[in-house]
Amino acid sequence: MTIKEIQEEIVDEFSMFEDWDERFQYVIDLGKGLPLIEEKYKTEENTIKGCQSKVWVHAEQKDGKIIFTADSDAIITKGIIAVLVRAFSNHSPAEILEADTQFIDEIGLKDHLSPTRANGLVSMIKQIKMYALAFQAKQ
Predict the structure, then answer these.
(1) 34-49 burial code (b ≥16 CB/10 A, e <16)
(2) DSSP H stretches of helix in 1-139
(3) Looking at the 3D structure of the chain, how many domains does it have?
(4) Among residues 94, 80, 71, which one has the least CA distance to residue 125?
(5) Which domain, by its residues, includes 102?
(6) How far is CA 101 from the centre of its chain?
(7) Contact 2, 94 (CB under 8 A)
(8) Model pLDDT for residues 39-73, shown as the tens digit of each residue
(9) What is the Cα 63 distance to its own chain's centre?
(10) Among the listed residues 64, 78, 62, 90, the one whose alpha carbon sits nearest the alpha carbon of residue 6
């Protein structure tokens, strides 16, 4: 699946819920299914700056694709990073860099987060793009 197809799938899933209480519960459930980062990668270097909660993201490149793992000490934040990992993991650096993040606006996530969580979301996206940029530069 392309990043765009995954993003459309996420938008469809969120549209099934009536209200934001149900959507936040879904975000929490997504966080519970997140492929967790290994403890050895829970370092300052892998911490997302600008997040209210602790969020760690690790990236590895295998066969030209970037694999992201992540974790957070907060349940909502863990769900948010799970959405991003799902959308961007297992794609090439170029695909990640070219992808837009309009789907975040389409599901209304940013509008329903506190200002500090919304800033954290932007920081998570920035970090994912930075990893893609770094891997692309190595090629």
Answers:
(1) beebeeebeeeebebe
(2) 3-15, 20-32, 75-88, 93-98, 102-107, 115-138
(3) 1
(4) 80
(5) 3-138
(6) 10
(7) no
(8) 999 999 999 988 778 999 999 999 999 999 999 99
(9) 21
(10) 90
Residue that has been written with the tokens 């987060």 in this structure: 113
- Cβ pair 57, 48 in contact under 8 A: yes
The model's confidence at residue 111, banded by pLDDT at 50, 70 and 90, is confident
Pair of tokens at residue 72:
């957070």
**Quick one: which of 30, 25, 24, 7 has its CA closest to 88?**
7
In 3D space, the residue among 127, 126, 104 whose CA is nearest the CA of residue 56 turns out to be 127
Beta bridge partners of 56: 47, 71
CA dist., res. 58 & res. 20, Å (int): 29
- The SS3 of residue 112 is helix
CATH of the domain at 47: 3.90.1010.10
Q: Is the pLDDT of residue 12 over 90?
A: yes
Structure tokens at 58: 């690790």
Task: Tell me 57's DSSP state.
Answer: E
Which residues are annotated as catalytic?
51
pLDDT score recorded for residue 138: 87
